Amino acid sequence: MKNFAFIFLLALVGCQSSHLQIAYTESSLAQRASGVMIKDLATGKVLFEKNADQYFMPASNMKLLTFLQANRILGSQIPSFKYRETKDTLFFWGTGDISNLHPTIKNTALRDFLAASSKVLVYGSPLKQIPVMGSGWAWDDYNDHYSAEISDMPLYANLVNFSAAAKRWRIMPDAFEAVSKTGSTQEVRRNRLSNQFELPVVQTQKYPSQDVPFITSPEMTAFLLTDTLHKSVETMPLAVHPDARIFYAGKMDSLYLPMLHESDNSVAEQLLVMIAAEKGWDPTTVIENLKKEPGNEFLKDIRWVDGSGLSRYDLLRPKDFIYILETLAKEVAPDRLYTLLPEASKTGTMRNVQDLNPGVRIWAKSGSFGNTYDLSGYYLTKEGKTLAFSILSNLGNTSVKEIKNSVVEFLKAIH
Questions:
Q1: Using CA atoms, how far apart are residues 70 and 391, in angstroms rounded to an integer?
Q2: Does residue 5 contact residue 13 with C-beta atoms inside 8 Å?
Q3: Is residue 280 exposed (0-12), middle (13-18) or buried (19+ Cβ within 10 Å)?
Q4: Alpha helices in 145-280, H assignment, sequence order
Q5: Domain layout of the chain by residue ranges
Q6: Angle, in degrees to the nearest 10, between helices 62-73 and 265-279
Q7: Which end of the chain is more exposed for a tag (fewer CB within 10 A), N or C?
Q8: Rounded CA gap, 119 and 72, in Å?
Q9: Which of 1-15, 55-69, 211-225, 352-366 has the lowest mean pLDDT?
Q10: Average pLDDT in the 252-263 region?
Q11: Per-residue model confidence (pLDDT) at position 22
Q12: How confident is the model at residue 7 (pLDDT cuts 50, 70, 90)?
């Protein structure tokens, strides 16, 4: 009887695999560079794989790996900044926390802490500056919100927000009003090499809100804090003092949610800076150091260059994402994990994934840029089985929307 049950199970798995093979072959995934792996988390059975050992550009699927590492190291509270007080001076250092004065997260802990002090305020900038853009990022994205610069102490998400009402511009933070002038451009454009902004003439009552990265520097950080606090903030290159204390403010999940739901690149990049601050590492070596951490042996076989996946230098395989998903399922409580990941037809970047099979639920991280759409996550079947899946599709000489549609159509073949 046991042998019969085992043979029956193998037949079911084989039937599913054959069914998925036909679905894959008939889809446009087979006509472009693509790889797939689907695994039953309960049994460990691989239900289907195609090019699962091949490397692909993961795009924002990379944020799953960043989340895994940050969740292991940073705990539940945000390490917002470090500080040390002497008799007459308050020294403070950045930890990479992007929530400080963030327009939506609205963490005001740093501002309030500095405002309450009557001492001389000194911002200790890094002795070695952090590269403001990731390796392999597109240089001409500098004006786009998703390419905000990386820094040790982000303020206002390192973005300037421009909006208009009643044909009048509103600029936040307002410290940038003096360097913003109306011109002939069709959208707000920053000078590539300086914090000079050209604004279009407002023809209608409203102008859609636009976020534009500003150029960061220790001097800019001190300037913005001075403008915000209405009192002087000095800056000097200064190593973090061994006696410096960490000020915690807010929940880490308030950072993970926008990173995973809305694919916020800046949060992902700043999480790596936060990991470096927590570990006492040079931020430029954080990825190499993470590869040496226990439990990260799988990282030696991948190419990992940034936290967000914005770089086309990143290379992972479908089987790597299955391992990441399996590990997250073990290390993160299911309710929390499925809250942080966007759900198909309901939340985040998955809200527009519609027309799924009846009774099916999917929580997944999508990733896209020109010629690429990737999707990795969890598939709950109508029978209650939880599957981990990764579908990576690159080099499609067609629209991202068309590639996405082929991925979603293939998902419907899972049962």
A1: 24
A2: no
A3: exposed
A4: 218-229, 253-261, 265-279
A5: 24-71+262-411, 155-215
A6: 30
A7: N
A8: 36
A9: 1-15
A10: 98
A11: 80
A12: very low
Nearest to 40, CA basis, from 401, 402, 380, 392: 380
Q: Which residue has the tokens 């990576």?
A: 392
pTM for this entry: 0.92
- Looking at CATH, the fold of the domain delimited by 24-71+262-411 is given as Beta-lactamase (3.40.710)
- Using an 8 Å Cβ cutoff, are 177 and 227 in contact? no
In angstroms, what is the C-alpha Rg of the chain?
24
Tokens 């991948």 locate to: 302
By the 10 Å C-beta count (0-12 exposed, 13-18 middle, 19+ buried), 5 is classed as exposed
Q: What is the token pair recorded at 17? A: 């695999």
Give the Cα separation of 190 and 196 in Å (integer): 6
Residue type (1 letter), 178:
A
Query: In the sheet where 361-369 sits, what is the strand order?
Result: 46-50, 33-40, 386-394, 372-380, 361-369
| Residues 99, 152 contacting (CB under 8 angstroms) | no
